[in-house]
Amino acid sequence: MDSLIKLLFCFSVFLLFGEINGVEGSDKNQRMYGFRPTKLFVFGDSYADTGNIKKSLSSSWKFPYGITFPGKPAGRFSDGRVSTDFLAKFVGIKSPIPYFWKDYAGKKRLQYGMNFAYGGTGVFNTQVPLPNMTTQIDFFQNILTAGDIYASSDFSSSVALVSVAGNDYSTFIAQNRPNSEFPAFIKQVVDQTEVNLRRIHALGVKKIAVPLLQPLGCLPGITVASSFQRCNESQNALVQLHNSLLQQAVAKLNNETKQSTFIIIDLYNAFLTVFKNKGANPGSTTFQSPLKPCCVGVSSEYFCGSVDEKGVKKYVICDNPKSAFFWDESHPTEEGWRSVYSVLRESLTASFIKA
């Protein structure tokens, strides 16, 4: 790549990620008195990915993704900001640069941490060649070992987000494995998550935020069977088993560290609270049809962002993404995430104040 092309490429990266993350600026009013984070490190999947997954592998780089923010597709699985962005804003720092773009970001932009999450990934292998969470932590450890970006002293004020949003379970179902094996597999997922949490903590991260699994039975890909009217309670029962085991694992880890190192983010009840909201919760949008997605394919073989061989779009979008909780069949809109974090604000504040 000659110098001119490289300069233009770096400039385009600045426009893409400098603009995105700059908008999220440091809000000192969000910082907690007991703990003032300066860096956020992110591991996980599409609920947390802000641009790692390659354009050739994902619809998140296709229109209409990103139409609310930053106004064009940017690798986020939403019309705008995702969970990572809202957690970063909550703790008062800029959303961290995606790992894939680290070589073009400049050291100043890397001071806020780094995002290793890849859409479509899981605790175990889900989509080859995407890196599962163990590999993502390997990337993190390699950067720490190199020592040219972060020093050990940087981690006394660091936070990690470890997102598991269900890809392991959708892969389990796609493999047509017997339902009788599901509970044992859930335990395997949680046990490996515990291993991952221990490893991230051992690498020096001060606080680790661990979301509970959202109600998978309420995702539009499932509720389409009821014309987006009802959640699948059988699937939600399995989610509750996952969440119960995960809470037990986190409680054990906190007992071992003798500190409130690991923080539960209760996405399950936050999602349900928003679904049931009738305007009683300040700052939370009332969604008239919360289980119905904004962007859908025109038929079952198409999805949000699909076009045919002539480039004709094969999807439809709702009139106003702010009126919808879900963007596509699996992911919230920016307004959906904003409402979820509005519900979570009080519990997150209490968790971050603890030493």
TrEMBL record:
The keyword Transport does not apply. Pfam families: Lipase_GDSL. Keywords: Hydrolase, Lipid degradation, Lipid metabolism, Signal. Belongs to the 'GDSL' lipolytic enzyme family. The keyword Nucleotide-binding does not apply. GO terms for biological process: lipid catabolic process. This is GDSL esterase/lipase At5g03610-like. GO terms for molecular function: hydrolase activity, acting on ester bonds.
